[in-house]
Model the fold of this input.
Amino acid sequence: MDRSKFKKAMSEIIKQPVERLGDDALLSNLVTDSFLLVDMVIELQEEFGVFLVQEDLKEVKSVGNLIELFETKSRETA
Done:
């Protein structure tokens, strides 16, 4: 998975500059509205052809965690 493409898509959804989306950036600091967070995950799933369940997101805290989850799930469905 192209990390820069993922971060660009993410930045457009949450209206944050891509520079703020370092792998260690906490999602809770970037997205304070839980509805926007849910919307972001849904849009990213659609764009990258990955299906997640709520349980998958339990341990996701940072941008890097989210990207790793999407990478893992995309390999599982490939």
About this structure: Residues 12 and 23 are 17 Å apart (CA to CA). Helices lie at 3-14, 27-30, 34-48, 63-77. The two ends are 12 Å apart (CA to CA). The chain has a mean pLDDT of 95.
